[in-house]
Specification:
Length: 510
Amino acid sequence: MNIDQILERKFKLSEFRHGQREIIESVASGNDVMAIMPTGGGKSLCYQLPAFLKPGITLVISPLIALMNDQVRSLRALGLGAGCVHSGLNEAEQQRISSDLKERKKNNSSYILYMSPERVQKKGIAEWLQKQAITLFAIDEAHCVSQWGHDFRKEYSQLATLRKSCPNVPMIALTATATPLVKKDIISHLKLRQADQHVYGFYRPNLFYQVEFCEEKTKDKRNFVLQAVKQTPEGRIIVYCGTRQKTESWAELLEKENEKVGYYHAGLNAADRTEVEKKYARGDIRILAATNAFGMGIDHADVRLVMHTQMPGNIESYYQEIGRAGRDGKDSTCLLLYSKKDKSLHSFFILQSRASSKIKLNRRQALDAMVQYSEGGECRHSDILTYFDDEKRIEKCGHCDSCSPKSDRMVARVEAEKPTSALSKKKQKEAIFSAELPEEAKWRVDVLKEWRKEYAKENDIPAFMVFSDKTLRDLALKAPTNEAELEKVYGMGEKKIEVFGSAVLEKLNP
Ligand SMILES: Nc1ncnc2c1ncn2[C@@H]1O[C@H](COP(=O)(O)OP(=O)(O)OP(=O)(O)O)[C@@H](O)[C@H]1O
Ligand SMILES: [Mg+2]
Ligand SMILES: [Zn+2]
């Protein structure tokens, strides 16, 4: 059978999702593969399907028992040979696996065996593996090998032992976390050989991306939250909050004007958490204020609005959280509200943490990227694709606040009220976002935008990573004529000045 026939006959699916065919073909031709696809993108098929191209065992490493059980259940439901071994296995299940494997050997058929990373390090496993007909190693959630990732697992970092036991078996590593650093770490820890790298699926054309800067000590955030909910009369809504306490206060506020509101955070006891999850699943809760503790393994098709009331600490987490919107492919909105305080809060936590200085530096850089994304660049979808190094590139999406500021999908800004406390002159100047630029600065905005676009394209980096809109506006306003003046511009650090300071000065002073 070829891969199209296996897809139809074994997996009962009619077509591949974006990227699956390319990845499967690469695995089939014996390459080591590094595959990155966002949550829900369809990574499992990329190692499950090749299992049926030739007889033998595909050994899958997965970090969670619940995940393994789920996958084995659905493979068995399709009538495909699969099982898992981990510490929680009961006697009957153990026997089933060993008779499955005997059967497989007799029939010379295919089998997908899931194994916990702890099990791989157990005595005798290496010898056992050498005696089996292993055709492929698949390392799922491979970011766990990297200490830069968000779920570092020691046993994962030792998985190179697989390579040592069976040097000729190809390996595929899969994850949704796409930072270049994590990718590099995975490839080196797992000793992938000339890894064929694939990044797919970060374009979500049904999502509308919008980011709004909210002034401290005003009702900006509150107005946006209420307005966004008002504009979303149907489907589920997730309101992500930075702290446990905030989930409760936002829920309280929302409850005044809405029905079916709830909140969720890790401080609730297990019974309460399960109760909220059930209510949300049943639809008894439609609007849920939650910390990032909510989400793992929760997959509802009709989330129409994902709103962040505080800026997350990095683009990877942010992307993962907004990825819960519009799973059914229907129009949905992702609104990020951020204020100046959000950044200092994250900075504070990084400073306080006991991580090594290298990890701290890495987190600080990730935070800077998140801030710059929030402060704006070119098309948000386009910038995201470039940021994650997706195979796909677009110029303008037509469904983000940057491309379509007049779209009726935009959450409307409720007429700005006077700040509750008068802003000082200095503060007013800092509010570069809301302030209208003087006439003579406007041409500079255009010149700088044009230059940024070209530079970003040439270097294949997102526009916001060159410099954000906030920096761009400050450049236009301050109109620096030399390096010393450039240093005073918001967001122009030493490095940026070194890389393109002179080019910018030239543009501004023709
Ligand atoms: N080609 C396809 N056609 C239809 N449905 C598919 C296809 N490929 C995968 N799916 C379905 O998409 C869902 C998500 O797939 P999968 O669990 O493999 O995602 P994932 O990329 O591993 O996500 P996560 O990062 O959450 O683990 C599953 O329900 C799966 O059955
Ligand atoms: Mg998966
Ligand atoms: Zn766009």
